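Run log // design_07
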């Protein structure tokens, strides 16, 4: 019979950590995107911004930051590089000059058709069925959404026996 201390020490092993499994998987997936994005001249974060804009052109910078979970210190330089590359144009809102909206240029719109094969290529690299990837994606989003209130310091952390 194992003691409670031995059981808790087992949870301190790296391979038992959910955070490490998610982190290392995220790195591996991002590496798989690189050879798919390089021919388009895109980085992975730029691809994410474009995915948002292909869904909703003219999104506000703050809206993009919320959607991508990026702060302005990270997002602003990224958008500046994308604007310099000619993919987007940033414009101040007429009704409130503090708000900046991001619009795709013709070049940014054209990248959508060039990027259309990327999801299928990634699915092939994952060597999984589409249904399995969709289920896993839903589970990871639910996990993320369940953790969102924990980022709010006014929310107390729930007590759990293990991660």
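design_07 sequence
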């Amino acid at each position: 019979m194992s003691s409670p201390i031995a059981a808790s020490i087992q949870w301190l092993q790296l391979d038992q950590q959910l955070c490490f499994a998610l982190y290392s998987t995220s790195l591996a997936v991002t590496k798989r995107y690189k050879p798919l994005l390089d021919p388009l001249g895109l980085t992975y974060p730029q691809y994410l911004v474009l995915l948002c804009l292909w869904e909703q052109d003219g999104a506000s910078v703050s809206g993009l930051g919320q959607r991508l979970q990026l702060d302005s210190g990270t997002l602003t330089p990224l958008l500046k590089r994308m604007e310099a590359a000619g993919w987007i144009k940033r414009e101040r809102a007429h009704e409130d000059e503090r708000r900046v909206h991001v619009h795709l240029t013709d070049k940014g719109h054209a990248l959508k058709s060039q990027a259309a094969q990327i999801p299928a290529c990634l699915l092939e690299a994952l060597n999984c069925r589409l249904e399995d990837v969709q289920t896993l994606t839903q589970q990871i989003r639910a996990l993320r959404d369940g953790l969102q209130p924990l980022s709010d310091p006014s929310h107390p952390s729930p007590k759990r026996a293990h991660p």
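Residues 29 and 126 are 8 Å apart (CA to CA).
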